[in-house]
Each structure stands twice: as C-alpha cells, then as structure tokens.
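Collaborator request, handled under Task 6.
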Amino acid sequence: MPAWAGEVRLNDQDITRLRTDHRVRRGISYMSELGVFPGLTIEENIQIGGQFVEASVLRGRMEELYGVFPALAERKRTLGGALSGGQRKMLGVAKALAAGPKLLIMDEPSAGLSPLFVSQVIEVLGRFRSTGLSLLIAEQNVAFLDLADRVFTLENGRVGFEGTVAALHADDALHRAYFGLG
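Structure tokens returned to the collaborator:
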C-alpha cells in the first residue's frame, strides 16, 4: 500500500504525475528549507528559479525582485553560500518567485531566522499574496498565520485541526495548545 493515495489538482486539472518542469510551467514554485544553491551567485540562483521563463520576461522579473530585495541587488555576484541565514532565505524566496508562480509552496520559511528576518519574510510574502499569489506553507511559527486563510495542524502525523484562522483562535483548547496563552 502506498504511503499516500489520491491526486493533486491545480485549476481542476490532475497534475499528480506531471514532471516537475511541467508543474513549474503550470505555475507552481517550491522553496525548500535550504532554498539556495550555495555555490552559485545570487544572480545565478534567481536565473535558475526562472529557467522556464522567456529571457526578456525573466530580466524584468529579476529587476522587480531586486527592487523588493535591495540587499540582493547590491550583491548580485556574491555566492549564495556567503550570505547570512536571513539573506539566504530572501534569496530562496526570490528564486522561487522568479518563475512568476500562481502557487508558492514553502517548507519552514522561518527555520534559522531571527525574529527580524521572520517579519521581513512575512511582509514580502504578504505583498505578493495581495497580488494573487497563493501560498502553501508548512511552518511551526504561528506568526505566519497572518498570511493564512485556512489552517491545518498535524498531530502525530495526522490532521488534527482544519479550518480558518478565526476558528483556530476561537477554540480555547487549540488556542492554548498552539499559542500558550490562556
């Protein structure tokens, strides 16, 4: 028996068995917890993120991303491995956004970040979300709830709660369990 069953659908189309490059062309980007290639420059990382985008479109998108992430623009030729943890995370976000996704899937975007960088990541994601970008985020930091429409909690490998952020806050036991406030 497989570990999972079912299908993955995007815009009412089954994409379960599509190759990764076809999923990217359909508008899905993924940012792993690590997010960047340490041996490549900032510019090369972003170019890899937009590898399936027409060159002229990618150039414009890179300029837009450098406007959002000015610290990356100043260091385009710096290797990803030479960046601080927060800068690497920002580069990972920029790399994932280079494809112009409709859906950005992220794994632990706050891992290893200071509270200052966490708030910056949330602010940037909120900006892109307001333009129509959908986000699917696996995250333990409750600060990311500000970006959420729906919340799923995992308890011992199973979905424990599924609902809106308001419903999560309204349930006293869940609120205490996840926020420690009483």
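The cover message to the collaborator said: "The chain has a mean pLDDT of 91. The two ends are 42 Å apart (CA to CA). Please let us know whether this matches your experimental observations."
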